[in-house]
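Assemble and predict.
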Amino acid sequence: MSLLEIHEPGETPLPHAGEGTLAVGIDLGTTNSVVAIAREGKPMALHAAGGKALVPSVVAYPSAGGVLVGDEARLSMVEEPRNAVASIKRLMGRGAADLHTVAGVLPYEIEPGTGETDMVKLRIGGKARSPVEISAEILKALRARAEVALEKPVERAVITVPAYFDDAARTATRDAARVAGLEVLRLVNEPTAAALAYGLDKGSEGLYAVYDLGGGTFDFSLLRLEKGVFQVLATGGDTALGGDDFDRAIAEGLFAERKRDGLTDRVDESGVKAALALARQMKEQLSDREQTSGRLELFGKPSFHTLTRTAFDAMISDYAQRTIAIARQVLADAGMTPQEVHGVVLVGGSTRVPLVRLAVEQMIGKPPLTDIDPDEVVALGAALQAEALTGGSDTLLLDVTPLSLGLETMGGLVEKIVPRNTPIPAQLAQEFTTYQEGQDAMAIHIVQGEREMVDDCRSLARFELSGIPPMTAGAARIRITFAVDADGLLTVSAEERTTGIAQRIEVKPSYGLSHDDMADMLYDSLDNAEADMTRRLLAEARVEAQRNLLALEAALDKDGGLLSSEERAALDAARARVEAAIAGEERDEINAAAEALEALSKPFAERRMDRGIREALSGLSMTDLQERVGE
Amino acid sequence: MDHFARLGLPVALELEPAVLDKTYFALQRQWHPDRFVAKPAEERARASIEAAALNDAYRTLKDPLARAFYLAGLRGVDLPGDGKTIDDPELLMEAMEAREELHEASTIEAVNGLAAKARSDMQEALAELANLFLRDDKPALRKALLRLRYLDKFAEEARARRANLERLKA
């Protein structure tokens, strides 16, 4: 699917479409996901029956068939680690070069040939699967949970994304929702959603910061809260920085200790997964303990490890400092000092790490706000926004673009068209000209990022504006317009102004999904739906035909004498055809055979009816008859 | 429609930030795409364009320097695009000397001093702008605005330099 979104009239949902169905808020997290609903401004996370709100963002494709999501998938990782995948969010809209290894091994098996110029795919359970379809499984599970909890169909959702997600990752998220059969009302930035939940709950006003450190992403946003307006002033982050990095640091340590102790340093994908699982457990225990220990067994060789809080803090100190540097930059972007911040809201499970809390507190000079569960606050905010979008509300969310958007110009330089922290929706244009005599085409390369050189930015798309009338160099006036919608998605159009040749071109983004991939995935789910329907209709036809056959057999046993031998032979042939059809797979043939049999048996049925009436009437007086009729 | 008209504000250099925010929020309440989620496609498209235009107007008028440039453009002052070389020899000399000083500043205090001077120069030049607009002195406006743009860039460079020095210290 492309990031360069063109709204075609046929594609937009009808007004009031889906009214009556509920709209939920979904936090599709790296480690855990949560679905929530808001009613009359009161949000609540939806729990599994008797369970918790968090759904581990783990998907498994067991060799026995089917798909598992959440706790079940996580459990199945022990049995079949190669058939399960965690932290898929880190791969949304990403190429192979964006992946991180542990002990030189990836906790994923990459489908060969993917991720070089397109989105990486994983090989799981012997099949290539894209991050979009894996994420769609998580969304389907959340949707099912919501439908069970609310006892109503759920077809619309507000889905949160890290504020710092780029265009490819946002598009991938929206595509995953489509595959899961959800209409995305809005993609809302996670820190903004958290502020919404926090601000509405507490009625806060003033300048607030949201420090959001999840499993795989970091966001820092600065917002002004004022009488129902949530105005994002600046945002920044890193989409590859989170608690997963802490786990990886611990896991690297575990492998180093094994090596030091002379155990085999052989490592494979399953070993990495086991080490990461232990690392996560140790990390979580260090949130309220000074020391923890654990046992790791690989290739039948166990090892025992202890980890102190101090040692752990040293491992992750660089990561914590990186988040603080980003936060300072965001404050500088907004022209604010830490002292001006009224409060900082902590979001994401990784903010439970004591060192992280301490770093935030030291920067802002105030204890951070943790009133709302940091794991649920984003989903609660998304639910509030879902209610606001479908039911109307006085709150106003004014968000910004996290990354600058621009074009490649001469010499590989970037010309920024939409600077970062521009309020969205935004529509900004700039004019360019030709640099060669008689130049009739212009290559347009769209990039996202803060660096000056194209090579240091993320390439989003390329297209060519052709059909420029030949003119002297510098005479053509080509206006290029960047439009960023309220979901943070980009549309680019180009127009030659002296002749008015306009082009709005949809372009395949680098690291995005191709149209074919997306179409395949949609058709897959449609195909499945169709196959399911076909199977059901076939079963129904068989049952119906079988029932008629049995009724006919019973009638023949009783009244077979009413038929001539020719008639009987014809009927038997028709019965045999129905039986053969039932054994087959063709619903049409079953129906055709059944109809033929019914037509052929009609005279027999009529004769039976006549005889039945005669028998019933024989020997009865007029009075008896009247009494019978009156019964 | 110019940015001032779009926000229902008088065309002026002076603008009370609180007034700008108030009118902007009120108009966004009316036009933000979040209000049009269930509306037909044409209405949604219209709202998106209106909201984008409001954002552009707000962003331009919110920043005093961007506002001054925009107003000068409305008044017909001929201004070179951003990033063009300085064509005023006097300003060129000032810029070169200041850059050299910044380059040589090796302490955070020294950088802070240079940044503070740039800021006070900016305040002074901004205050002077009102008079120039009043007199409609286009050549002087052009000169003053280009100097302001340079001072703004210099303040930004000083911030980056200070951040670097702080990192080195830490």
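The first strand of chain A starts at residue 22 and ends at 28.
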